Amino acid sequence: MIRTPGQNPELLIRQAHILDPSTGLDAAKDVRVASGRISEIGENLRGTRELDADGLHLFPGFVDVHAHWRTPGREDEETIESGSASAAAGGFTGVVMMPNTDPVVDNPVIVSGLLRRIEQESRVRAYVSAALHVGLKGECLTEMQLLKEAGALCVSDDGLGTQSAGVLRNAMLYASTAGLPVLLHCEDHALATGVVHDGAAAALAGIPGSPASAEDAATATALVLAAETGAKTHITHVSTGLSAALVRFFEDRADITSDTTPHHLTLTDDLISTLDGTYRVNPPLRPADDRDAVTDALRDGTLDFVATDHAPHASEEKELPLEEAAPGFLGHETAFAALHTELVLTGKLSLSRLIEAM
Fold first, then answer.
1. Whole-angstrom Cα distance, residue 194 to residue 202?
2. What is the 8-class DSSP label of residue 185?
3. Which domain range does residue 35 map to?
4. Looking at the 3D structure of the chain, how many domains does it have?
């Protein structure tokens, strides 16, 4: 709740249908909010300022574990203020910022500077993911212990991935020692030579594709190393049925969590035929069989979260032919609505599971 000067900071939300899978609460209740925090939940509460929520749902705030706010360096695309406003509009009260900015978030000075800016500019709780290796070049590891002391929540190679299994293994060992979770973008660049999924749609459109194995091979490597090193590992934006199956196989063998995105749950590579740069994203949109398998994995809990991979770009970077456009979708404001429409209303996913995953 954002307060304005002179406004009574207390609000009573009347008869909202509260759905909170973490506590098992699923009922219409009154909710009192005081000084920006929930202070009481009950029946027939009284307050001086009320909001009638009869017939509406009230959910816990969503947490987006993967977003790109482009700060520092590309504030022309997104700022902390605009990114957090977008997140709040979509129901997100917590966001993890990825490190592939300009400059890369790979040293303690940048981490501490970002945290100071977040405190001043963000409308939601925002957390900093620092880089797994210097410059995200996949070579020298960052000083992870110092990054943690500066306030980093985790370390990640998002945007580029880690091409050397040896570097990734050493990074996992170091991160484990530093007490930092590792968030991994699984992509083998030797295989990922195209810009869309390598399938029938790409062939018909005449656009170079990357096979699903580019993700699957890197996911398998990451999971084997997670099991071996014991590092707390998060596999982000799972988009193939085989990668989801690999996560399922390793979920009892390693300390892992995972997510997928709204677009990989709702769209397919049939959109390649539009040649619209809007639909270029990494990992690429997959065929319906992969989309359905990923949806099944989210439903049964194999995949833990939905993360938006919110990735704003300047208009001139997206308004290009598909093969030239920058990869990435916006996601904060549309995630819940899209998933509710495409999955919950069609009976593919329960509302409770969606809220739990978000």
1. 10
2. -
3. 10-57
4. 2
